[in-house]
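User: quick one, sequence for these tokens?
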């Protein structure tokens, strides 16, 4: 078993060294990544030396764990110098080309993708997490005239940012109470929304629907709440994406939406059914 591992490591070493040679042609742009590949070659060399020692001394294969642990420590200590080959922009999730991944220390990304298809949404991370909460009862839905923050002047559901250490559902309850005076009851998450704005801002939101509530509705410094018939929702005064998913969510569908906005204008969208929400 150890001999087989040594054979594999030998070919890995050759491949890494050949790769390093190709990086030399781009060393003006990839100096850090060129050294990263050398560090990787060093890790492979340590493993090979440890494996050879195990074989020469006639030790059991389990002793190969010792150089493996040494290499794990080596990789951890040099992690900031080795793990540089990122596939996507950390800010917006835009995929880099293979040349940018391997041969550029600082791949250029304007962080303003024009299409949702250009973003790796699985690795994308938003700058802020938020919630919305729709209270729906007796053919009416609770909405607000938003006074402050993102979307001020528009009509929306109560909601806001998730605070540190707070669950999404707890945030939905708290924000609804703070903005309307009502406490939503029997909440269910139905929609997952992700937004990229071309100015660099990004937001991930979870949307809850409540079947009941308690308390008295009141205007607050953040919002002016009102009840609206389900067939009279004023979508023309809301965000452009709202009419694409709110009617479906009101019918009970579980949805996932990803969007790119330039200020108030929607540039790209994709909405899919997502039973796992």
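Assistant:
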């Amino acid at each position: 078993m150890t001999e087989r591992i040594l054979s594999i490591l030998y070919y890995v070493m050759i491949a890494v060294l050949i790769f390093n040679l190709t990086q030399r042609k781009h060393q003006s742009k990839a100096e850090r990544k060129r050294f990263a590949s050398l560090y990787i070659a060093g890790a492979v060399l340590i493993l090979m030396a440890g494996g050879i020692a195990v074989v020469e001394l006639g030790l059991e294969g389990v002793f190969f764990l010792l150089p493996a642990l040494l290499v794990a420590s080596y990789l951890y200590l040099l992690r900031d110098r080795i793990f540089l080959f990122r596939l996507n922009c950390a800010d917006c999730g835009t995929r880099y080309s293979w040349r940018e991944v391997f041969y550029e220390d600082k791949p250029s990304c304007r962080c303003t993708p024009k299409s949702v298809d250009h973003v790796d949404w699985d690795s994308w991370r938003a700058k802020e997490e938020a919630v919305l909460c729709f209270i729906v009862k007796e053919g009416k839905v609770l909405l607000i005239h938003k006074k402050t923050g993102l979307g001020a002047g528009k009509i929306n559901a109560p909601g806001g940012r998730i605070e540190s250490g707070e669950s999404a559902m707890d945030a939905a309850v708290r924000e609804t109470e703070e903005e309307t005076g009502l406490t939503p009851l029997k909440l269910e998450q139905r929609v997952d929304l992700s937004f990229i704005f071309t100015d660099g801002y990004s937001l991930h939101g979870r949307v809850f629907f409540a079947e009941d509530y308690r308390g008295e509705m009141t205007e607050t410094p953040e919002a002016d709440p009102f009840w609206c018939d389900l067939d009279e929702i004023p979508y023309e005064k809301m965000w452009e994406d709202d009419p694409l998913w709110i009617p479906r969510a009101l019918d009970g569908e579980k949805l996932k939406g990803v969007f790119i906005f330039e200020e108030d204008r929607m540039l790209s969208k994709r909405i899919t059914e997502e039973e796992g929400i």
